């Protein structure tokens, strides 16, 4: 459904004409509903693959993709030497590598997730393509012909926007009815709509004792041989 069609449904629930309730208010509630539902659950259509490139100017700070919700993995592409970056906790990183610029530049192998940015280590010695698996928030609807990027969730968005509308109109009983009786059932059904990974067979992993050893050029990379 388009934003205009969704708005008509919300208006019908609220029983207010356009003279009493401007379209702009319902448009706002619909976008609030879109963001609210995305906060509650990360739907499959929110999961995307993004691309980026490491800087080549001696910096190691990267910005996350715009509107990102969760980060799943980051891979550095370097031909046959491509690797998945290993996550390191900020405090552990700061203790082991208090001054990253003092280390030799090379292909990054680790990253620190902090705020809206992440730091690469080692500092890249050249530009490397990055492949990022993450989830992103849906974009707001800005025109009446826009459709929500959350698929098959029109009824849920209308119901949540209706709750926002009744709250704004201070019709608490109606807001409570929609919030307790209608929204939970639609939300439960929406979560179940995500496809299940049935093409998967669980395999028991043998028990192994992890041992720590220094391998490779450990004098250049303080993380080599450490158990993070």
Overview of the molecule:
The structure is a single chain. This protein folds into two domains: 3-43 and 150-192, no CATH class; 46-135, no CATH class. With 228 residues, the protein is of the alpha+beta class. Helix content is 32%, strand content 18%. It is elongated and about 65 Å long. It has a four-stranded antiparallel beta sheet, with no helix packed on it. Strands 2-7-6-5 form a four-stranded mixed beta sheet, with no helix packed on it. The relative contact order is 0.19. Strand 3 and strand 4 form a beta hairpin.
Radius of gyration: 24 Å
Order of SSEs: HHEEEEEHEEEHH
Oligomeric organization of the protein chains: single chain
* Adjacency order of strands in the biggest sheet: 1-8-3-4
Shape: elongated
Percent in helix: 25-40%
The low-confidence runs, each spanning 5 or more residues with pLDDT under 50, are 211-215
Number of strands: 8
Q: Could you report the average pLDDT, rounded to the nearest whole number?
A: 89
Distance between the termini: 48 Å
Category by helix and strand content: alpha+beta
Largest sheet: 4 strands, antiparallel
Classify the beta-strand content into a percent band. 15-25%
Number of helices: 5
Quickly count the domains.
2
